[in-house]
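hi! just following up on the protien thing from before. the input was this:
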Amino acid sequence: MPRLARSGGPAGDGRPPRVARRLRATGVVQGVGFRPFVYNLARRLGLDGWVRNTSSGVEIHVEGSSEAVEDFPRLLTDEKPPRAFLATLDVETDDCEGSASFVISPSVAEQWAYQLVSPDIAVCDDCRRELLDTADRRYRYPFTNCTNCGPRFTIIEDLPYDRERTTMRVFAMCPDCRREYGDPADRRFHAEPDACPVCGPDVMLLRGRSGADGGNGDRPSGAVETVADRGYEAIVAAASALREGRIVAVKGLGGFHLACDATDGEAVLELKRRKGRPHKPLAVMFTDLGQVRRHCRVDDAEAALLQSVEAPIVLVEWRGPGAGLEPDGELGSGAAGERDEAERPVSPEVAVRQRYLGAMLPYTPLHVLLLREAGRPLVMTSGNLAEEPIVKAWDEIERLSHIPDLYLVHDRDIYARYDDSVAQVRRGRPRLIRRSRGYAPFPVRLPRALPQVLACGAELKNTFCLTRDDNAFLSQHIGDLENLETLEHFEASIDLYERLFRLDPEIVAYDLHPEYLATKYALALGGGGDPSRLEKVGVQHHHAHVAACLVENGRTEPLIGVSLDGLGYGDDGALWGGEILVCDLLGYRRAAHLEYVPLAGGALAIQRPARTAAGWLAALLDIAAVERARRVGLEIGDEELTTVLRQVETGTNAPLTSSCGRLFDCLAALAGVRTAVTYEAQAAIELEMVSAAGAAPYPFDVEEGAGVGGAAVVRLGALLEAALADLEAGGGAQVVGSRLHATLAAIVLDVCRRLRAAEDLNAVALSGGCFQNRLLSELCEVALEGDGFEVLTHARVPANDGGLALGQAAVAGYTVLSRRGLLDESPDPGAT
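and the predicted 3d structure came back as:
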């Protein structure tokens, strides 16, 4: 055997010496075709060696000519697969091993090592073409995928990413699939979810054993039988049922959808009735972008987002005069049925009183086939009851038993629950409203490495966040943490993330609200039997919002934070929600806030905005103002009003709040838009839908030093008096809503100007659920930028409570590092 020098080649044979390099790649480098890419690149350059998955990423050994070896790292970075993300690429000199070829070696598990995990990827164009090609062996096969698309996070049980550690391990590859899997020239080379009609998952159509149609409550819970249809015929039968007005539960990537014909108003109403969701808008899946454009106005940025590999639900503007604004039932299935099939409009029942429709495109082969067979847009809403987690497994299906008429299911197990992501495009930039499928568990980069933190989030739109090094793993959407089922989903998902990313948190961050289940969970955690091992850090709600915006924008320095939302527990026990802070990642000072007003009935007032309006008028003006409001349309009965006035006068069950969300509720109820709600922020959303830019702001007063700790207080009495006067003069909801939006932007600008003069701060971060409001966000951004401020906003992380855990994790990590004397940064002297 020839002697090998460190620089490679056999001594004295006259050939150029061989050199070798060892490369270690981290990031999203498994499940995205990275090993096949490395293999083909090495072969192209004439290099020998090997590539293998490890628990921390991908390890590569290459050897050959000096020129080719030197080119390899550059080409690796420049030509990597489109879904790969290189966080690091370490290259070091290595000994030649005498390899005579390049191979993909078996994976190596490493204790406590971790790597990033790819989100699920929408079906690629190549697989879509095969799916519809009558000559292809995967013609109409609903689980077609390759290294560039298909399930990833939802099927992975552990790492390294190999088939035996996914839910695909039960499907043994047939000879044809095995040949593709081993062929370097095939795009299914080492595609772990690879399958075909011979060896892969199958689809079938099921119904309740009772045979009853219409989701009757007397159907045996969870009892189903197989309909005669399997495979593609099951999809054809499901599509036919949908066209007939039936409701079908469809098992997708991360759980079940509930589907119906979006052009059939009666079917949509029935789905809403059975699901217990009378008003909340439903998402609609369209066959292709052309079909979306026949129903909605879609700009280039929205089109790109709809067709992206993440394929979220995108809120786009409906076409037609007043689309979606008609009263319930005005355009039902009868009117639609008289139209030509190609012109059937999406029923306004899908999103009542909305100008925007949640549109998405088919992102799995199953959805592609179902939409083509149905021939019309389909409602695709999460398969759950109101506020419960999405159903993902057959043993949970009884939770849906009274809703669907039929079940289109498959036998590939879903390991991780995964709701659809929701986004909007504003000022040309995609903004996530719900971050889940296609985005999680891809991390957000932290400004610096932190200790391992578990941040438990809040109650509504819950997500959690775990950190390791400079990665913040913000979870997929969990849901409203208000019931046992969602709590179990929360706990199981934390366990999964800790296992995948080899995490053992030493710090736990939590919201200050003592009644949140997430807070109770955090405070009850021990540290492997030693509670003292876990350092617990409470993080104020609005500080966490602004901190999340800071982290997303890669900033750490003190700035002005504007945090507007429904409510968050304040340091003084009040319900905050209209806050302007001076803060960084270590602390904050409350610089200004909307004035405190009693919330008569507490949580009941959130459900009944009419109570908020009556109570605020009584508290800030007088009882006569309440009667004036009733004469111009405030709907509240005598008995309820008497209760509200007593609660305001005595302070009984009337917690104080500075909430911006409740201010929207108050004006929406005054203007007759919405006096009672069935989903979060309904009144505020419907008021936004009738509002426009260009209105004059209402008067307001900023009283310096009037609040606790010297905070400025924004007085609202003049605003309410002026709004009432508008209504008495015949101005409607559009006038009041437009002026309210203009007023809030004026308040933000006024207070930020004061703080710039006093604190020498010029950067402003906008966060909190109210900044999901397109009009409010744009008015604030334009006003601040026009005055010379630098404005930081959210895009990849939701502005609402879905991004809160990221801010909690950062604040807790920085706080503990500061306590330990390990931070270079010093806290803002004015922060608390």
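The chain has five domains: 4-104, 117-200, 203-410, 449-539+800-832, 564-747.
Residues 76 and 101 are 18 Å apart (CA to CA).
cheers
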